[in-house]
Amino acid sequence: MENTIIYRYLDEEQFEDMLSTSSLFFTHRDKIPEYEEGKLPENIEMQIRYWASQNHNAILQQQFRQFHPSYIMSSYNEENILAKELQQTQEFLDKSFFCCWHMSEQFNVNVMKGLGKSIAIKTSTNKLLKTLYKKGIVVQSGKIHYYTDLNEINALKRINLLFSIPKTWENENEFRILLPLFKSVEIFHYEAYPEYRTARSDKEYAMYQNLLNKIIHTEDTHGVQVPFDLRIISEIQLPVNKLKQFENKLKETKLISKTITYVSK
């Protein structure tokens, strides 16, 4: 994906928290159910069964590399594959978090207010992904796909379930950063087989463990604070009547020179 200008819209509490902790909050899908992230298509079982029938030999070869033949003979059948795939899909959805941005060359006050927010920060996709990579934070990113029919989604590629929302939201023109904190194959290999540790660096694994331990799950909040380099913010849009409220924090973080005020109507 080419470098793109992005805005993140925040309310006052989120903005204060970002400045105080130098972090971005990655939320869980269960706190914004109206977007229907992670909703399984009705045809997911059919997709899995078809995939299993078309990849019979490849699945067996993979299992022979990892398990004892007696285990394979007892476990390899269509129903077990279906159950395993559905279980792993649910684990992926339950342990994944995301941070949403608006793709636009210009600040869009209407989109911001439509989201119920009052403050915007601006950066670019390249800067954001680069700073996360430097900190050892493994993420996946991309544009949101807006669908008219949930069954059109390829659910075998699990990431599609968290990068697809109904077409009614397409005016948000969203770029999403996804933080998967489930036990992936790479994490499993890192922990069980030292020879496979090339899939994750020590730094990335340490950050994975750190973020796992920082997951917040209460009645009102479900997510994780992710370290964020405030220096990549190139512009802040702030209501003129809120400048004094945040002035000291903006000076402390050296962001005062990047702040632009607007008249809130």
In short:
The protein is an alpha+beta fold and about 260 residues long. The chain has helices spanning about 10-20, 45-55, 55-65, 70-75, 80-95, 110-115, 125-135, 185-190, 200-215, 245-250, and strands at about 5-10, 25, 95-105, 120-125, 140-145, 145, 165, 175-180, 215, 220-225, 235-240, 260.
Secondary-structure topology with pairs:
Layout: E1 5-10, H1 12-21, E2 23-27, H2 44-54, H3 56-66, H4 69-75, H5 78-94, E3 96-103, H6 109-114, E4 119-124, H7 125-134, E5 140-143, E6 145-147, E7 164-166, E8 174-180, H8 185-192, H9 202-213, E9 216-217, E10 222-227, E11 235-239, H10 243-252, E12 259-262
Parallel strand pairs: 6-7, 11-12
Antiparallel strand pairs: 1-3, 1-4, 2-10, 3-8, 4-11, 5-8, 9-10
